[in-house]
Amino acid sequence: MTVSAGSRPSSRSRWTETVRAYTRPRTLTMLALGFSSGLPFLLVGNTFGYWLRDAGTSLAAIGFLSWVGIAYSLKFLWAPILDRTVAPLAGRLGRRRGWMLLAQLFVGSGLMAMGVAGTGHGLAALGALALLVAFFSSTQDIAIDAWRIEIAESSEELGLLTSAAQLGYRVAMLTTEALILVVAEHLSWPVAYIVYGIAMSIGIAATFFAREPQRADVVMEEKQTLTPLWSPRGFLDAVIGPFVVFFQKYGTFALLMLLAISLFQLPNFVMGPMTNPLYHDLGLSKDEVAAVRSTFGIAAVFLGIAAGGFVSARLDPRLAVIVGGTMQIIGTIAYAILPYNHDIAAFASVMAIDNFGIAMAGVTLVAYMSNLTSLGYTATQYALLTSTYAWAGKILKGFSGAIVQVLGESHGLMTAYAIFFVGAGLIGVPALLLFAWLNARQPAASTA
Fold first, then answer.
1. C-alpha neighbours within 13 Å on the C-beta side of residue 312
2. 403 burial class (0-12, 13-18, 19+ CB within 10 angstroms)?
3. Does domain 23-447 sit in CATH 1.20.1250.20?
4. Exposure check for the chain: N or C terminus, fewer CB within 10 A?
5. Residues sharing a CB contact under 8 Å with residue 187, sequence separation 6 or more, in sequence order
6. What per-residue confidence (pLDDT) applies to 336?
């Protein structure tokens, strides 16, 4: 059947449909859940490091404390429980929403406890609370990611929900990078953490507003009937099944795909703990950093998300991640400029390049990974993929402060920072080469 030129939708009508798609209740819910997912991430990561540096903590200690984020890299270990059980006390909301709510309550309480404890009770106590927040934050991510994939009724809607999730996530990260500095500067770090713990109520409200993915529930109920979790066969299916199915689906390429994913965001992870200490050591005020992040930074994030969505829609997923990864490397290396020129114009330019690259890389990677999961194992398989992309970076970033300190002894602190950021960018090159190899050798249908 042919479509006449007059019956084709105009560019204006397509734009209207796009706007309507982003204002659908489900998309708005995903936006709020993405915000809830992104809110704790930097509060136990880079922003946590800023607080510690303000309190006089050494760079080496800041780097080592960043290891609390390893919880995000191990979440595939408990993801099978979220796939096959309902949350205690909150199970009436359903499998996905119940675990969301339980995790959100613990995250919010943990952040407020960090604010109450402060650094006055010692780094061990504060680090333990940060670890608690990281564990339940990663648990929240498992449930939200599974909900996003399972609730989508088509690949187009999955792309839409992924964009909304990334947008909410990046907005949360910007507020925990920028707005929190204003609160910390004019009130205190403890007050800032208490405020952000209360802000988790946004995610809690979205959880009540969301609905359970019925199609996935049918599959999981059948599994529970035929192979109960605590039976030998059910336990093996929950724990081993997701990995067996994944490796059966992608064959000999599976390990190389996981390796490429694990190397992809090394620049972002490794450089992360040292950005805020760099700002501190350059003498930039919290108000200056917050002002640039909330203007140039947030604009660059929005542009990066849009660019990532565009290339993911237009290109093969493996080509899209190469484009996104290249921009991420450029953004990381750009930080080497600041030790030698850190006026506001240079700082804003570097911040914009970095935020654009990170946002674009994040969207292309999430789009790539979301298409690799199988219904019935969504939470565990996606947790495996997201853990894979995080574990190497989470471990290596713990040494970032020690590396800068050692380089500083022989080259001076500012030169050490410059060398560090160039090196952090270049370690992302192997992932791009591996994705390029996969693109040349792997059948296109394997990632459809």
1. 31
2. buried
3. yes
4. N
5. none
6. 92
Rounded CA gap, 325 and 10, in Å?
34
CA angle 171, 176, 181 (to 5 degrees): 130
Q: How far is residue 307 from each of residues 18, 163, 293, 300, 312, measured CA to CA in Å?
A: 16, 11, 19, 10, 8
Nearest CA-CA partner of 32 in 190, 140, 157, 154: 140
Burial of 118 (0-12, 13-18, 19+ CB in 10 A): middle
Q: What letter does residue 122 receive in the DSSP assignment?
A: -
Dihedral (Cα; 118, 178, 64, 394), 10-degree rounding = 130
Angstrom distance (rounded) from CA 284 to CA 280: 6
* 329 or 342, higher pLDDT: 329
CA neighbours within 13 Å on the CB side: how many for 35? 20
* 3-state secondary structure (DSSP) of residue 89: coil
Residue 378, pLDDT > 90, answer no
C-alpha span between 243 and 104 (Å, rounded): 28
What residue has token string 């398989």?
A: 381
Q: Residue 419: which pLDDT band, with cuts at 50, 70 and 90?
A: very high
Assigned token pair, 2: 């042919």
How many angstroms separate the CA atoms of 178 and 156, rounded?
A: 33
CB contact set of 127 (below 8 Å; sequence gap of 6+): 65, 68
Percent of the chain with pLDDT over 90: 22
Separation CA 198–CA 193 (nearest Å): 9
Q: Give the Cα separation of 236 and 250 in Å (integer).
A: 20
Compute CA 403 distance to the chain's CA centroid, rounded to the nearest angstrom: 25
